[in-house]
Specification:
Blueprint (H helix, E strand, L loop, with lengths): L2 H30 L3 H11 L2 H30 L6 H15 L8 H5 L8 H34 L2 H22 L3 H5 L4 H4 L2 H4 L7 H28 L6 H17 L4 H16 L8 H31 L6
Helix pairs in contact: 1-13, 3-4, 3-6, 3-11, 4-14, 6-7, 6-11, 6-12, 11-12, 11-14, 12-13, 13-14
Length: about 325
């Protein structure tokens, strides 16, 4: 099977079929309670002037989330070439536009380096990898906390195995992140890495202080989008307690990070993961607020910046300089 055939199978046959399956499972989850009409009325009732201030807070937290990501990117680029915050912010938004239409948002780096001079593009792509690993370090660590909570109250053999694998994964990611410069040394030993050896040397520029600063910003982002999600679902009437809710939210984002997905499936995966963790564990009896909150967060934190990034891409294509 050649690459074109594989792509056709993935994008036009497998992905739509899996999406239909996920939507069916979500539908079953919603209908399982037998009170769809009541849930819908409750959802509408919670969208009132009293909850508006909390929704405004969710919206205001979104630019802060983007700002922290832009600061991460600025620090990463600053070890390659000086860059202003506005340029880093624009580059980050362009990356978001690319990430929204690629599997597990791997196209993020491709969008970011559009704003970087040609001679620095490969180094910038490697720097983008460091930022992604830092965010995964935080997600993996809090995912473990969520899995521990899940195993204490709802665990089974499978969830216990997942906990063990999650610990190993988190340890490996954090160890690799803190020794990221090791990759530049390996490049001299392995022939397949020698072609990018010069670019990989940029990893030696990142000191422990840089890595710690980037981790701190990643932690701030994690707190923001977890807080946004809990605010949204409670605004919509889920009545999720904040302590257990934060742990389940952390587990949900860990699940989204480790489960392979493509753009067509992301909403289905988000909805199913959220409802499975919050409804089946009994943290809430209302499935629609969880589903709606998951989708609203996706629009606020991913779609809106991606739209802005798309405008910047158009400007680049027209030959305009984005500052």
């Amino acid at each position: 099977m050649n690459k074109i055939t594989k792509k056709i199978w993935l994008n036009y046959i497998f992905a739509p079929a899996l999406l239909v399956l996920l939507l069916f499972l979500i539908y079953k989850q919603v209908m399982a309670k037998g009170d769809m009409a009541a849930q819908w009325q409750a959802l509408k009732a919670h969208l009132n002037p009293e909850t508006l201030k909390w929704f405004v807070l969710v919206l205001l937290l979104a630019p802060l989330n983007w700002t922290l990501e832009a600061l991460k990117w600025q620090r990463l680029l600053s070890r390659i070439t000086p860059v202003r915050f506005t340029k880093a912010f624009a580059s980050m938004l362009t990356g978001m536009a690319f990430s929204l239409v690629t599997p597990n948002r791997v196209g993020d780096f491709a969008g970011r380096i559009l704003h970087v001079q040609n001679r620095y593009k490969l180094k910038a792509a490697i720097a983008s990898m460091i930022g992604s690993i830092a965010q995964m370090c935080i997600t993996a660590s809090f995912g473990i906390a969520g899995l521990i909570y899940y195993n204490l109250y709802f665990g089974n053999t499978l969830s216990l195995v997942l906990l063990g694998l999650a610990v190993l994964l988190a340890f490996a990611i954090i160890w690799f992140y803190l020794r990221i410069d090791m990759l530049s040394r390996l490049a001299t030993k392995y022939r397949w890495l020698r072609r990018v050896n010069i670019a990989l040397r940029v990893l030696r520029n990142y000191r422990k202080a840089d890595l710690g600063y980037i981790l701190l910003l990643a932690f701030g982002r994690f707190l923001i989008y977890n807080g946004q999600f809990l605010l949204l679902v409670n605004i919509l009437g889920a009545a999720v307690p904040w302590g257990p809710g934060f742990l389940m939210s952390a587990l949900m984002f860990w699940t989204l990070a480790v489960v392979p997905s493509i753009a067509m499936l992301e909403l289905g995966v988000r909805g199913y993961a959220g409802m499975s963790l919050f409804v089946t564990t009994g943290l809430t009896a209302a499935s629609l607020p969880i589903l709606s909150g998951s989708y609203m967060l996706w629009v606020i934190n991913l779609v809106l910046p991606a739209l802005l990034g798309s405008v910047l891409i158009l400007g680049l294509r027209l030959g305009k300089r984005v500052e």
